[in-house]
Amino acid sequence: MRPRILGLALAAAVLTATPAAAITGGSQAADGTYTFVAKVTSAGRACTGALVAPQWVLTASSCFADPAQPGTATATVGGRTAKITTLVPRADRNLALAQLDAPVFTVAPVALATSPVQTGETLRIAGYGRTATTWVPDKLSTANFTVQSSTTTTLAITAADATTCKGDAGGPALRETGGVTELVAVNATSWQHGCLGETETRQGTTETRLDEITDWVRAQIPPYAIRNFNGLCTGDGPQVTLTTCAAGQHWTLPGDGTVRTADGRCVAVAGTALVTAPCTAGPEQQWRFPGDGTFRTAAGACADIGSNAPGTPLITVGCAEGNLSQQWFLKGDGTLRNSNGLCADLGSNAVNTPITMVACGADLVSQRWGLLGGALRNTNSLCADLGSNTPGSRLIMIACQPGNPSQQWTAPGDGTLRNHNGLCADLGSNDPGTRVITAACVAGNPSQQWRLDR
Length: 454
Fold this sequence. Notes:
Blueprint: E1 4-5, E2 8-9, H1 10-15, E3 27-28, E4 37-42, E5 45-53, E6 56-59, E7 74-77, E8 80-89, E9 96-100, E10 111-112, E11 122-127, E12 141-150, E13 154-158, E14 172-177, E15 180-190, E16 205-209, H2 214-220, E17 226-228, E18 233-234, E19 242-243, E20 251-252, E21 260-261, E22 266-270, E23 273-277, E24 287-288, E25 296-297, E26 302-305, E27 314-317, E28 328-330, E29 336-338, E30 343-346, E31 353-358, E32 369-372, E33 375-378, E34 383-386, E35 395-398, E36 409-410, E37 418-419, E38 424-427, E39 436-439, E40 450-452
Parallel strand pairs: 10-15
Antiparallel strand pairs: 1-15, 2-5, 3-12, 4-5, 4-7, 5-6, 6-9, 7-8, 8-9, 11-12, 11-14, 12-13, 13-16, 14-15, 15-16, 17-28, 18-19, 20-21, 22-23, 24-25, 26-27, 29-40, 30-31, 31-35, 32-33, 34-35, 36-37, 38-39
C-alpha cells in the first residue's frame, strides 16, 4: 500500500465525511505571514500552492484531473481568486506551474531555493488541508518537519507530532534561514496518520523536490515588459529610460524583491535616478508592485517620468494617487477586454465621446485604460461616467471629478466592472461598434465579463 495523494475532495468532505485534509500537529499561521501560499481548487478537489511569480503558482500536478488542462481551476492568493488559464506540468515528478488570468501584486512571491536540501535539514510545511479536528479549514496551518532521506525527485520527511493531510498537496516546503524564506519542495503524499477520520498508524510524508530544478521553473515563466500608462516601455540600459516597445525589453521578478534584466542586472536607485547594476542585497534594489499600478522602492517612493518623450529617464518621487505618469503595466497592454475578445475604445478625445467595442489593436493609446482611485481613465485623462442611473445608460468620457459617484467603479474579482450605483458594464451585442452600457448585474453573464490587462 502506498501513501495517499493529498488532494481533498471538497464535496465528499462536506456531504459524506469521506477523508478530506490539512496539517495535523501544526499551528495556524499568524495573519500576514506566508501570504504567498495559495488555496487551489480544481474540479471539486482542494489543494495548496505557492506564488512564485506575480502570475504563476507552483503546486502538485496531481491536483488536476488532466495535468495539461486546468478546466475551471482557480487559485486564491493575496485576497484574490484568479482563474488558472494554463498548466505546465513537469514530466518527471508531481509538479506543475499554474498560470493565473492576471498578476497578483498584493503579496510578494516566495523565493526559490538557492542550494540543495540536506538530510537532517528542518523545513516548514504549509497547507490548507485537513487538521486533526477540522475537515475543511479556512486557515493556513504550518509545522516543522525533518528531512530523513532523498532521491533525485523526492524528499522523505517526518515530524514527531505532525503530518500532512488531504488538501495539503502542492503546499510549500520552506527553508527559513536568517530571515530568508525559500521554496525547496511541494507536498505530494502522506500516510495521513492523525488526520481527522484516519486510522492509519504509519507515519511519513513525501515531498516533490524543487531545489535542483529552479532553472526549469524560471525558464517556464515568460519575462515581463514594464510599460507606462503612456504606452512606452522601459529600456534596460545602464540608465532606465522610456523607449518605444519592442522585443527584448524583458524583465524578470525572481521573488526576492528585485527587478532584473535578461542578462541578470538589477534595477537600482542612484539618487533619484533608476539605473541597472550588478545585483546586491541592498535596499536600493528592492521594489514592490502593491497592486495600485505603481512601481515602488523599499522606502515607498514611486517610479515616475518627467515627460512622455522616448529617452526620458525614470526617476523616483513621492507617490501621488491618480498620477498617470506613475502608472505602470507588467506584461499587460492596458486594454479593457470583454469576454467576446473586443477592446473598449474611443472614437475621439472629445468630451462626451461614448465608449465602443472594437477589434484590439497593437499599441493604440485610445485602448489603454486604468482603474485609478476608483475612476476608469483613458490615456486622454478623461473618466468614464454615466448619463443617468437607469439601466441601459451608455458610458461616456468626461472630465474627471473626484468624489463623483457616477465615476466610481470597482472590479470585485468576479470579472465584472461595477459602478457605484450597483449596475455592471455590459454590451448590447458582440458586434464591433457596440457601445458600452450599464445593466443589472447577472452572475456569469459573458457580456459583463471584463479583463483589465495590467
